[in-house]
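In response to the reviewer comment on reproducibility (Comment 2.3), we provide here a single inverse folding case reported in full, input and output, so that an independent group could reproduce the run without further information from us. The structure tokens appear first.
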């Protein structure tokens, strides 16, 4: 069994993302392809399909998605790969993403209850290396990155 055969078995059930090792491997491959290319999110959609969300300062077009697919073909040979741009509801997966979009509206979902809730929608008002702060309708809440299950920008 090659590396690709372990892809879905490496899924981290807590984070609902692929293993850190495979994520890092994909990031290195993308950096070799283009140092400005960023892997925002990698997630299995089903038993045979994986979605990669990528970003690039010059934008993401079909040609770039095709180049990424070809660059990862051997790594994910047993998996159908869907490569896409972040779109207006861009995933936020790293502290730098939250800092970059301060002032924008986002939805942050937590793994467990946080202040009695698991979903917070509001303006990103702070982000340091440990937590993001969201001004939601119910008040301002600070959420440690380790508690975040999934987060994304909202349109408008």
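Designed residues, in position order:
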């Amino acid at each position: 069994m090659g590396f690709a055969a372990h892809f879905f078995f490496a899924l981290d059930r807590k984070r609902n993302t692929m293993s850190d090792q495979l994520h890092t491997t994909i990031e290195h491959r993308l950096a070799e392809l283009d140092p400005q290319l960023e892997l925002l999110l990698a997630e299995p959609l089903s038993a045979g399909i994986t979605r990669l969300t990528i970003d690039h300062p010059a934008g993401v077009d079909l040609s770039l998605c095709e180049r990424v697919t070809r660059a990862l073909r051997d790594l994910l040979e047993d998996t159908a790969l869907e490569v896409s741009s972040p779109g207006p509801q861009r995933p936020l997966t790293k502290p730098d993403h939250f800092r970059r979009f301060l002032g924008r509206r986002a939805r942050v979902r937590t793994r467990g209850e946080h202040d009695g809730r698991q979903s917070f929608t509001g303006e990103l008002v702070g982000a340091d290396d440990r937590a993001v702060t969201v001004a939601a309708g119910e008040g301002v809440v600070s959420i440690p990155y380790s508690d975040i299950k999934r987060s994304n920008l909202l349109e408008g």
